[in-house]
Amino acid sequence: MGTGQNTFGKGSSSASGFVSGTGSSSASGFVSGTGQPVVAILTRDGLDEPANLAQIREVAEVRVCTTNSLGPALSDGQGADVLLLWDFFSAALRDNWAQANTLRWVHVCAAGVDAMLFDELRSSDVIVTNAHGVFDGPIAEFVLGSIIAQDKQFHRSQRLQQQKRWERRDTIRTAGRSALVIGTGGIGRAVARLLRTVGLQVTGAGRTERTGDPDFGTVLATDDLSRYVGRFDNVITIAPLTEQTTGLISAEVLAAMKPTSHLINVGRGQLVNELALIEAMRTGAIAAASLDVFDTEPLPELSPLWDMENVHISAHMSGDVVGWRDELADRFLDNLRTYAQGEAPANQVDKALGYVRAG
Amino acid sequence: MGTGQNTFGKGSSSASGFVSGTGSSSASGFVSGTGQPVVAILTRDGLDEPANLAQIREVAEVRVCTTNSLGPALSDGQGADVLLLWDFFSAALRDNWAQANTLRWVHVCAAGVDAMLFDELRSSDVIVTNAHGVFDGPIAEFVLGSIIAQDKQFHRSQRLQQQKRWERRDTIRTAGRSALVIGTGGIGRAVARLLRTVGLQVTGAGRTERTGDPDFGTVLATDDLSRYVGRFDNVITIAPLTEQTTGLISAEVLAAMKPTSHLINVGRGQLVNELALIEAMRTGAIAAASLDVFDTEPLPELSPLWDMENVHISAHMSGDVVGWRDELADRFLDNLRTYAQGEAPANQVDKALGYVRAG
Question: Which residues numbered 143-172 in A keep a CB inside 8 Å of some CB on B?
């Protein structure tokens, strides 16, 4: 472990962050007087602190802060070089950017980093990493469950139960049905694999068309979505939210979908034109929507979505399995240890793209 | 195709039905004057007739009847040698047994034959066949969906939606959880395979303990159920209903289950002591029950099960996917063609056991 400066950070003009070779002297060393990283942990009232905080303190000097105290936490003394966005939807870094002079690395405890990215951060050399991988399996299960629940009419059975009505109905065989997974990152891939495992016919959609993908087989281009979306029984949106994907499920795309189709959004609310979706549900342009994410969260009480029988609402929780926060904290600790050894933290977000590039 | 008598049928004293070798003259031929089987099809008001009825008529002389006309349909003219229980829960054969003198084969369009078996039929040489295989895949999906729906709290999300309440909760990772599948027939095996595919830890329970089962790995003996049932997160009952399995999920077994466990009954209502289950749900002895079958069907309006939030009721439909009746009719037609060639129909129920023996 060397004593020089890392080549990345807010003030650095170098385009790339780390040099991955272990022999490079530019890939190690810290400004901290103790030789330890200085980590600001942004939390908020009501949020438990990371369960492994004591272990984090063994590796780093730690400053736990909330939005109001983020500025000093970043700039006091020799300044923080690491920021852990434990409150992962916070946009507070943007407001305190002027005080982030020593910042080199921000770790976001979420898969999507859309809420925290901003232009100055993008054009800086500060590295952004995310919780790549943590949510893959849980969200894949959630999607599979949503599909079977709709196919087997579980929601309708629950309403009939509330009315004490016995109505035998024919339901749908899920195996053999088709699914379009929009988003070919880690979560999309896990969804594709799980759906294939139980016999669904899966196709992917991403920025570029290709064949022979190990998880999807065929990946179609999202540019053309309305041309082919009508072929699919289930349409799953799990793309990162970027300028390109905002409003991807437009009125036009919804109109092109099968009237019997089921939209499942476990990505971000803004991937879907919510007003167009409300209209599509009203007119029966599509049959059902399972929505875990919304334009505004919590979903406002006045939203017509609440009252729609074929809309199935959950509270942005598709990836939140018991122990998920501990898993997030453990992943950060692993990454921090890597960083403390002068190596590049894993799961770096391509800030121009807005997500981790597939390995 | 020979012209002699088959060696099976009500009046035959031979213990076995068909001889499977094609060279045997005893395995072919019919009493029908036209050389065709005479098939009585028992239906009921409100039930569509088999979609392939015209094709059945090409192979056989057909008499479509209801409960009231079953007797003459069986006995008129030279009498029917085949009975198709298209109305598959009917017990009408028992009441018309005296007129079934020429009957050789009853095909039941269901997986479970418990509703139609009776002692005189059991001790006769009349062959009983069932819809073995038709429901395997659909019911396996239904079970998997029930497990994920409970793990991800879909039912609770629906109730919260009705109240326009946004409540983010941590849910359960389904992969890695355990499941005990009680019943090692075709459906139980399909359930086991599908659950394993998505990462559940599956164990079987059947009449005899064994290891190295291709679908279950370990099969435990149902005799000992209360000794080991407490090890499982999910308990699935899909055993055939027999004297031995009636009330298998007893008060004692329920008391031995994990307080966090989930009971899924897709077999027969009588596999579970329903009163004991109601009590177990009231006291929180188990966490949830997904019930597709009941002691009395339709479930009476007075049943306390309707009002229980952790009981998920469906109307005996777990295997009923779109096209299932056509599939049942096609399976019978295949079997009838086999029979018309003097060969043994497939999927013969062991009438002493009450189900098709695993091949």
Answer: 144-146, 148-149, 151-155, 157-158, 160-161, 164, 166-172
Predicted confidence (pLDDT) at residue A79 exceeds the cutoff of 70: yes
Phi, psi of B220 (to 5 degrees): -95, 160
What does the pLDDT read at residue B34?
A: 56
Query: Residue B3 pLDDT more than 60?
Result: no
Give the number of C-alpha atoms closer than 13 A to the C-alpha of residue A231, restricted to the C-beta side.
Answer: 13
Helix (H) or strand (E) holding B231: none
Beta B38-42 vs A311-313: how paired, if at all? unpaired
Are A174 and B320 inside 8 Å of each other by CB?
A: no
What is the chain A residue with the closest CA to B316? A168
Q: Which is higher by pLDDT, B15 or A275?
A: A275
Q: What is the C-alpha to C-alpha distance for residues A109 and A89, in angstroms, rounded to an integer?
A: 9
Contact B143, B191 (CB under 8 A): yes
pLDDT at A32 over 60: no
Provide the sign of the torsion angle of the four alpha carbons B230, B233, B234, B239, taken in this order: negative
ipTM of predicted complex: 0.90
- pTM of structure: 0.91
The pLDDT score that the predictor gives to residue B9 is 60
Sequential DSSP letters for B158-177: HHHHHTT------B---TT-
SS3 B120: helix
How many C-beta atoms surround the C-beta of residue B155 within 10 A? 22
